[in-house]
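Summary of Year 1 activities. Much of the first year was spent building the evaluation harness for sequence design. The harness presents a backbone, in tokenized form, and records the residue chosen at every position. We chose the following record to illustrate the format because it has been used consistently in internal testing since the harness was completed.
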């Protein structure tokens, strides 16, 4: 019995030692402000390199690979719909999320072409240790104008830090759509809102609103100005 206890104790100590060693070797968690700053530097660097080389930036790849994964689109859609989100079935919620994501990403991609490599500075994060929801604050310098504030509301979850809202000059990008979404639901129900988003995205894809979308300031992500009126 004593041998069994000794073996069990030895095994427990070995396991604890291995876990402690693994924790020491594991990389430190990335702070959300550092993550955003590094990503911004990467995106700006890509834009500058492509511009210097005289080539077009593959925006679809850049946005899809590096930027889209940072956003919690289901939560953003739920916030934009408010109480109407609960009226939607799981299938409708999935459709709404997909169409809203397409709308936001399309608008951002077009606006990114105009904004180019404007410098953005991030403020040190003010958050207590262990906080799972924080606001990362930044500002974009503009020639002949006051710096533009861009704040990211972020939450830490199983997939790491994800953005669920952006406030540009103090205005919430997500909430900017709430009134128009509510009006669409009142007029045609959840399916009516889905059809409206599908139609808008279809027109964007065929270029019917391309020129208009290109003039819009970004509605989310790493660069921006005041979001479009609903």
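For this record, the design step produced the sequence shown next.
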């Amino acid at each position: 019995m004593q041998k069994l206890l000794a073996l069990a104790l030895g095994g427990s100590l070995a396991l604890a030692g291995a876990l402690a060693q693994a924790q020491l070797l594991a990389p430190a968690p990335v702070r959300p402000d550092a993550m955003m700053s590094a990503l911004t530097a990467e995106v700006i660097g890509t834009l500058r390199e492509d511009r210097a080389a005289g080539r077009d930036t593959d925006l679809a790849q850049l946005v899809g690979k590096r930027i889209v994964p940072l956003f919690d689109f289901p939560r953003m859609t739920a916030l934009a719909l408010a109480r109407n989100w609960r009226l939607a079935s799981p299938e409708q919620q999935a459709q709404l999320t997909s169409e809203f994501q397409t709308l936001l990403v399309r608008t951002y991609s077009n606006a990114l072409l105009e904004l180019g490599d404007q410098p953005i500075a991030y403020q040190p994060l003010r958050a207590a240790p262990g906080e799972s929801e924080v606001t990362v604050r930044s500002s974009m310098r503009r020639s002949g104008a006051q710096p533009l504030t861009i704040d990211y509301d972020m939450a830490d979850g199983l997939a790491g830090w994800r953005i669920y809202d952006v406030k540009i000059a103090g205005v919430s990008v997500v909430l900017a759509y709430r009134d128009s979404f509510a009006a669409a639901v009142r007029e045609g129900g959840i399916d009516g809102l889905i059809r409206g988003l599908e139609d808008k995205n279809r027109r964007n894809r065929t270029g019917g609103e391309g020129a208009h979308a290109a003039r819009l300031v970004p509605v989310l992500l790493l660069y921006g100005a005041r979001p479009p009126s609903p």
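The chain is about 55% helix and 15% strand. Quantitative recovery figures across the full test set are reported in Table 2.
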